[in-house]
Amino acid sequence: xxxxxxxxxxxxxxxxxxxxxxxxxxxxxxxxxxxxxxxxxxxxxxxxxxxxxxxxxxxxxxxxxxxxxxxxxxxxxxxxxxxxxxxxxxxxxxxxxxxxxxxxxxxxxxxxxxxxxxxxxxxxxxxxxxxxxxxxxxxxxxxxxxxxxxxxxxx
Length: 155
Description:
Layout: H1 5-26, H2 30-60, H3 99-106, H4 113-121, H5 123-126, H6 140-150
């Protein structure tokens, strides 16, 4: 009957179980917490990438005398650089490359971040015989920024 010790104990146990269920439901499972953190991470990375690309736009002014990017980019002293990041070297149509670059391209050179960074640091050391007269970008931050900027331009 209601009010007896067994009935009170049962009611107390039911209340304790209900409270535990509510607490458990409020606490995210470890996997759910990890998934939520991963979902937020691309936004943070996108913000960092956008800031890096914005910095790269400023650094690219050193390159703009010879190279163009964007919808109306055309070859000039140097090839247009739309789609340059992750592209096989020597593939811009209509541009006459140096023998040095042509040979490296035939050897499989791809302009990934590592090769672009090495080339931009010191073009003549990376590719003996290059026509590129640019002295290079000594700052690793500047190189990363300009590569991030170039990454924003597709073919």
